[in-house]
Fold this sequence. Notes:
Layout: H1 34-37, H2 42-46, H3 57-65, H4 74-92, H5 98-101, E1 105-107, E2 121-123, E3 125-130, E4 133-140, E5 143-151, E6 156-165, E7 170-179, E8 194-203, E9 207-214, E10 225-229, E11 233-238, E12 241-242, E13 245-246, E14 250-255, H6 264-269, H7 282-297, E15 304-305
Amino acid sequence: MKLLAYATVALISLTPSCDEDKEGQTLGAPRVEPPVTRNMPDGFSSASLALLNANSMASVLKNYLYPSGDGPSPIKRLASIDEEMSSLELRAKESKRKCQESGPAEWELPAPLPTSESMTINLQCLEVRSPELTVAFGAQGGIFSLVGHTGSTEEEAIVILNNTAIDGSSTEVWEFGYQANPIYGSGTGLSGPLFSALHIKGDDDSGIEVTSAGNNAGYDLACGIHLKSDKVNLYVKGALNAVGVCNDTAEYCYNAVTLEEADLSTCKDAGLDVFELTTLTPEILASQLDSSLPILNEKVTGYTDFNTDAD
């Protein structure tokens, strides 16, 4: 099954406007999607699916990250963030915002991340788009932070946590999804809520690393995958979903441009089997589902409303 699409969210920087005719402030927020796509294997966005084995790990990853058509994907959601930044830039130039004059304050996550990894998020501005959608953002120490939250665990909820370097050279994204009553395919034998997590770290120096899993085998990459690429080769360790049941975990090595399978030693000799991120697995998400619910339910509060003009 496909995970639900995200509402678009945005970032705002605190760079003073150089245009004296403008009363507000221009945006200097970095783009989120480019450091991800720039460091992804070129084959994900260029290689033809027709040339790939439809059941191969490379094909599944390509279809999940860069699907054809209008279906949602993690990369499209990041691009949507960047599109919203442009519209917020126009709004920010209309008048000076009070929240942009205040210093950032660290936001305390309402629950530990499923893998117990740390992520420091500093926020300044809060916009409540609707009772279902909030966006908070801020900058500190060369890092721009964003928290986007939509929905609730009564039906569907999505949360995006993001830190991107101001110079656009790196980004880290956590993406959580929850469906209280997902529609599982016939014959899967699955029931209950679906909780998914995706962790991405893209860096112009070290390449890209992505890990993803769900609490059950309810979608293509729910069985747990971890990939790392240096733009030359692509290493993947994970399990494919076979009609609601996870196959055994296996290792794969591909040419990053053509997605042709390569000898496993090629990737290991390049050190791609050494991960920085903790690998997400169905077991981790199933065990952390209850403790992670506050991340999905508790929207950001306590920061100055972005729509409040400066004194």
